[in-house]
Automatic annotation (TrEMBL):
InterPro entries, A to Z: DUF4434, GH
Any Pfam family hit: DUF4434
Lineage: Bacteria, Pseudomonadati, Pseudomonadota, Gammaproteobacteria, Chromatiales
Protein name as annotated: DUF4434 domain-containing protein
Highest taxon, organism lineage: Bacteria
Domain DUF4434: 32-318
Length: 339
């Protein structure tokens, strides 16, 4: 080992950071993936429009695509018999294009727009509700598996229910969500043994970082969740740049102890709706790139798996002027940092 490498390793250990981050400090910190929220107005999209989206993701060097849901309430985004098929079956098209592009896809299950309202009830209500969600998402996975396993791009599943740090703090509530995640993740591994199962989470800073770490250890260890996607909360104004590292360290420790993969979701939007009201209509615009660059720097201290939320909404030229500018600034940042 060269002396310079030894010195870098020493200072990395001294500072408590990864030596690989220091060794690669002149390289750009890049997004490795993005979310995609399918919407009913995309039923009219032709294959050319989906191809354009995938092409833009390749320009941004995106290697992972997380489709947030494949069923939204009663609206399916894939071709099946039990629901009225929407015109062009976006999921089928996306998987074919992702095969050709070499992009791995995590496929979201059933999303219920009434989720936040339904979990804000007594444990007896929540238990019945989670049982319904389990049945619904299991059915979707069963229907989708024959389609998805044909595709080289299929990387696994995304459980659509986001886990916060308010609704599951009580012991009874926590056990309910553990049971739900255990049963669903176990079932998904049973029908697709070699595929990953992912879930996302966020904090409202309602509990301190140590309690947050303990909470996530207790959720992960009894379940078969493989990947935890932590939302950085900057765009939604749930965290700021001073508090974010505290919770990132907590979730990093929880995932390491539980031997799970940590992905960090960098929010590339700026919310213009009420961040404290889960029931208010969500409204946001593309964020300033200088802010996003700061988020990327913080995220890179804890994981090299950085997911944008979300490039199709806030960083694709066709979305609008602000999104086009963000797209261009990001590409310039990547190209200039490489030099």
């Amino acid at each position: 080992m060269k002396n310079s490498t030894l010195v870098a390793l020493f200072f990395a250990l001294l500072l408590g950071t990864s030596p690989f981050v220091i060794a690669e400090k002149n390289l750009p910190i890049k997004f490795t993936g993005t979310f995609l929220q399918l919407r009913i107005n995309q039923e009219d999209w032709q294959i050319q429009e989906w191809a354009e989206l995938i092409s833009n993701l390749k320009k941004l060097e995106i290697s992972k695509l997380i489709i947030q849901w494949s069923l939204y309430d009663d609206v399916p985004f894939y071709a099946i018999d039990n629901y009225q098929e929407i015109k062009n079956s976006p999921l089928n098209t996306i998987m074919e294009l992702a095969d050709a592009a070499g992009i791995k896809v995590l496929v979201g299950l059933a999303h219920d727009s009434g989720y936040w309202d339904n979990i804000d009830h007594d444990p007896a209500w929540v238990e019945v509700y989670l049982r319904k969600l389990l049945s619904r998402s299991s059915s979707v996975a069963e229907e989708l598996t024959p389609l998805l396993v044909k595709h080289t791009s299929f990387g696994g599943w995304y459980i659509t229910e986001e886990i916060d740090d308010i609704n599951w703090r009580g012991q009874m509530a926590r056990q309910l969500i553990i049971n739900y995640l255990d049963r669903l993740s176990t079932y998904l591994h049973t029908i697709t043994p070699n595929k990953k199962v992912a879930i996302s989470c966020f904090t409202n800073a309602a509990i301190d970082p140590d309690t947050f770490k303990e909470f996530w250890e207790s959720l992960l260890q009894p379940t078969s969740i493989d990947m935890v996607l932590f939302q950085d909360g900057i765009g939604a104004k749930k965290l700021d740049f001073s508090s974010l590292p505290l919770y990132l360290e907590a979730i990093q420790e929880a995932t390491e102890i539980s031997s799970r993969e940590l992905y960090i979701i960098t929010e590339i939007f700026q919310t213009i709706s009420d961040p404290d009201n889960n029931f208010s209509p969500f409204q946001a615009v593309p964020a300033d790139f200088n802010r996003i660059e700061g988020q990327l720097e913080i995220a890179s201290r804890y994981s090299q798996n950085i997911i944008a939320f979300s490039i199709p909404d806030y960083m694709i030229p066709e979305t609008g002027t602000k999104a086009r500018r963000l797209f261009e600034k990001y590409i310039n940042y990547v190209n200039n940092t490489k030099k």
